[in-house]
Amino acid sequence: MDKEIFKQVSRIEERTKLFADLAQAQTEVICKGKGEALCKLRAAIWSEKSQNLECTLASTAKLENQEEFLGYFFIGGEKYYFEGRISVTQGKFYIPLPKELFQLQRRQNYRVRVPENYQAFFTIVSVNSLPHTVTGNLADLSAQGCKVVSKITALQMKVADKVTGHLVIGKNSPIEIQGIIRHIKNEDSLKNLQAIGIEFEKISPILENKLFALTMEIHKDIFRRPS
Q1: Does the model's pTM come out above 0.70?
Q2: 102 and 131 inside one domain
Q3: Residues 22-64: pLDDT tens digits?
Q4: Could you give the number of structural domains in the chain?
């Protein structure tokens, strides 16, 4: 676990209080399972005896019984992540108190650094409406933009150029995105690499949810890596 991104909530008393507060405030818990869509659950009842949080479904996408997921929620102005396995009984969704709960450091916001050797790419297919192809590895991603590391090419892109590209992460379907270049700098002159900062444009609520689901997918990978 990257300690610059997450801080572990180690005391069981703290985790228990957070889940009890979730139920009292009927907070939304967002879950990313095996599918591409995000499942939204509404916290309803915290059981001290069973150590389970009973939730109701608040989205069309849903988790199946015993499906593993990565979840997050906001409470007290802070954002928390955890992994779990959902139990579904008579339309109710039960989240067990996680053994590990992590608080996202505020300065990180939604942006996630993409781990090395992760299968994540961004291919620029047009620059200022003219066809060009530049493929690079995704270095970081948020719902607002990304950083791409690519080979320096003969194409001289510059700040404020408008680009269209395809974002591909793991086995997820490619997503076409429009954006504007905010910065370009040499990343590694020996390897002839450049870093391209792209701010996304024309982001609809549906596309924003897809992008956030992808950041969740990357967070799942981070959770499974050793500290």
Answers
A1: no
A2: no
A3: 999 999 999 988 887 889 999 999 999 999 999 999 999 999 9
A4: 2
- Regarding whether 129 and 218 lie in a shared domain, the answer is yes
Amino acid of residue 125: V
SS (H, E, C) 113-128: ECCCCCCEEEEEEEEC
Long-range contacts of 58-66 (CB under 8 A, 24+ apart): 58/28, 61/35, 61/37, 62/93, 63/31, 63/33, 63/39, 63/88, 63/93, 64/33, 64/88, 65/89
Range(s) of the domain holding residue 211: 112-223
Return the closest-CA partner of residue 214 out of 125, 148, 144, 164.
144
Could you tell me if 124 and 201 lie in one domain? yes
